[in-house]
Amino acid sequence: MEVDRPGPGEELNEGPVADARPAASVIVMRDSGGGPEVLLLQRNPESRFMGGAWVFPGGSVHADDEDADVPGPVAAGMRETEEEAGLTLPEPSELVPFSRWITPAQVKIRFDTWFFVARAPDGAEVVIDNAEVVDARWLRPQDALDAGARDELLLVFPTIKHLEQLAQFRSVDHALEEARSRRVQPVEPRVLIDGGVARVLMPGEPGYDDA
Questions:
Q1: What does the alpha-carbon distance between residue 158 and residue 46 come to, in Å, rounded to a whole number?
Q2: How confident is the model at residue 6 (pLDDT cuts 50, 70, 90)?
Q3: Residue 107 pLDDT more than 70?
Q4: Which of 10, 16, 18, 59 has its CB 3.0 to 4.6 Å from that of 80, i.e. a possible disulfide?
Q5: pLDDT (tens digit per residue) in 151-166
Q6: What pLDDT is recorded for position 2?
Q7: Cβ neighbours of residue 156 under 8 Å, at least 6 residues apart?
Q8: Strands 96-102 and 58-60
Q9: Taking Cα atoms as reference points, which of 171, 174, 77 lies closest to residue 116?
Q10: For residue 12, what are the contacts with CB-CB under 8 A and spacing of at least 6?
Q11: Contact at 8 Å (CB) between 80 and 26?
Q12: How many CA atoms, within 13 angstroms, populate the side-chain half-sphere of residue 141?
């Protein structure tokens, strides 16, 4: 599945590059008979930024998160997962770093986001706030990608790229094992404007160095 433009509400920036805000996103996973599933939340379609998009729980790091006894992104990830999905992750160690993505410099609202993988608490029920989040689904990563390709789910670029990786895992244990063994390096896509059309490019793709 290919995405060739920024997500809903992402405005291109024609001025100085904006600072990227610290943020966190948590890939909550559970095992099922057909393979591991991930939790996706639908943002309120009325939201100006990413309205209607299906994303992992997450958000900006707050000042209180920075004051916690754990790294700010970890504290933010735990807080946002509870606020948006009603899931309490018992220990900071439950969040295993998986990736770090920085919004392209060409976009007006930017985030420096740590993505974590976490196992869903046993027996926990997802409870959404029906304000910022209006729906929730457990889906196998490939099923989510297929639904996005059919325009049944609105998926944004970082979510798609993570789902593509998650689709390779056989179980939650497999995903956590892979996350613990990898060295997290910052990834910063770029936006290439070609003929008035904006395309999102990953490092190493043709045109990335010219964007």
A1: 21
A2: low
A3: yes
A4: 59
A5: 999 999 999 999 999 9
A6: 42
A7: 3, 7, 8, 50, 53, 55
A8: unpaired
A9: 77
A10: 6, 106, 107, 108, 191, 193, 198
A11: yes
A12: 24
Residue type, 9: G
Find the helix or strand (DSSP H, E) in which 147 lies.
Answer: helix 141-149
Q: What is the pLDDT of residue 1?
A: 37
CB count within 10 Å of CB 49 equals: 12
Rounded to an integer, what distance in angstroms lies between the CA atom of residue 166 and that of residue 64? 31
Measured distance between the N- and C-terminal CA atoms of the chain, rounded to whole angstroms: 21
Strand partners, 22: 112
Residue where the block lists tokens 């095992």: 31
Q: Is the pLDDT of residue 35 over 50?
A: yes
Residue 173 pLDDT exceeds 90: yes
Strand (E) or helix (H) holding 55: strand 54-55
Residue 151: CA count within 13 A, CB half-sphere: 0
Q: Does residue 55 contact residue 23 with C-beta atoms inside 8 Å?
A: no
Query: How far apart, in whole angstroms, are the C-alpha atoms of residue 48 and residue 44?
Result: 9
Cβ atoms of 53 and 59 within 8 Å: the answer is no
